[in-house]
Design goal:
Helix content: 25-40%
Structural class: mainly alpha
Strand content: under 5%
Shape: elongated
């Protein structure tokens, strides 16, 4: 007799599970209503402009960027040009 009780309970407990699966299936296949067109065109200004990308972090702790190297050229007297 206990086997029948176990089978009965297992069948009864499947009903809410199948109901949940049906609701999920129905929600996935639900067709959205087309948005009302106001004739103005565009997207209504809902898009946010993209933010500029931040520079990459340096090192594991975000160290400061390295100092710029010294200039290679040095100022001096102008060269004399040879005329051909």
């Amino acid at each position: 007799m206990q086997a029948w009780g176990f089978i009965w309970i297992m069948l009864i407990l499947k009903i809410p599970l199948f109901g949940l699966l049906y609701i999920v299936w129905w929600a996935i296949h639900e067709v959205d209503d087309p948005a009302e067109d106001d004739g103005q065109g565009g997207d209504g200004g809902t898009k946010v402009p993209p933010r500029p990308r931040l520079p990459r972090r340096r090192g594991p702790h975000g160290d400061t960027p390295p100092v710029a190297p010294p200039r290679v050229r040095t100022s001096g007297p102008p060269r004399e040009h040879e005329s051909a």
